[in-house]
Amino acid sequence: MASGKKITVGDLAVGGAVIVIAIAAYLIGGLGGAPPPTGTTKANQASSGPVTGEIVTLVEKQLASVKVEPVDFHVFPVEARTVGSIDFNEDMSVQVFTQYQGRIIDLFAKVGDEVEKGQALFTIDSPDLLQAESTLIAAAGTLELQSRTLARAKELHQTRAVSQRELDQATSDQQSAEGALKAARNAVRIFGKTDAEIDRIVADRKVDSSLVVASPISGRITARNAGPGLFVQPGALPAPYTVADISTMWLIANVPESDSPRLRVGQPVKARVMAYPNRLFEGKITTIGAAVDPNTHRLMVRSEINDPQHDLRPGMFATFVIQTADPIRALAVPLDGVVREGDGTMTVWVTKDQRRFERRTVRIGLQDGGYDQIIEGLQPQELIATEGALFLSNFFATESPG
Hints:
Radius of gyration: 47 Å
CATH superfamily of the largest domain: Efflux pump adaptor protein, beta barrel domain
Strand content: 35-45%
Mean pLDDT: 82
Distance between the termini: 66 Å
CATH class of the largest domain: Mainly Beta
């Protein structure tokens, strides 16, 4: 019988327990006790591809939430934006005065009426017109008398009943009467009477002292300070009527001082008003203020806006843009493709295989028509996430290691 240590039942029990503990430890470590590989989380393994470094890999189901497009060019207008208010174009506004003094008889227009050039606004009883018409009637009568006298002198001269000197005198008197009548007709014509009206005054031997004051331009009545019986004089303020040509209006705004170096007379302007949000009114800058307001640090800018349909009203609030330079053609990304991170940086998600997306920092510039100008960070035709970029950024923030 070989000699050696005897193995008892107790020894077997202890050894078996050790083996069981070792196997249990192995199983626990293999099934989940060990940490996952670097850059991968349990959530990643369950729902998507891994998030490693600045790269996110999406599974097929998640790709439906992301739209990929190539980076392309867009034309960006170079503009300054501000607000202002609409007003009448005072360069096209006329104060209507009577040329001669008198009392107002009738009024034919009120504030807000549209009038045409030459349309009667009011009439006055003018003593000056009365005097001019009386002189006209007298001149016409004198000419008629001198014409008969000349005709009779010619007949008598043929029979030697009057001398040549008397005939010459009659001829001179008749010519003087003709000149006086022409002067009288012109004096009445100054008051706005037509030749037909003057002929009727002469034929009827009846004066009409009512003087019609007409609108000198076509436009809208913007002010009326006249009333029946009011005595008016030439140039005496306030004017009985004010008429404004409303085919163009003024847009008056106070532009920030920082934008003043870019402003020039003649630059195109596009304006919108709340009353017509879907309409664009175009014009150009006509006046730039000479000084900046020391309190607001803003500069007065006045633009002339075309309004052929006469829709704009003074006092309307307007927003407008001024084209300060030629448009710029530059790389652009849709607004949804750019994400502002917590530290203020702007990022996009670039891909080559439309499955793995790499976060990249970019610098943006102008914004127009739903696009951001890319100054640096991208190249033409690179593929980026244009829709779902925010989803990628949020997923990266929540699922990345650490």
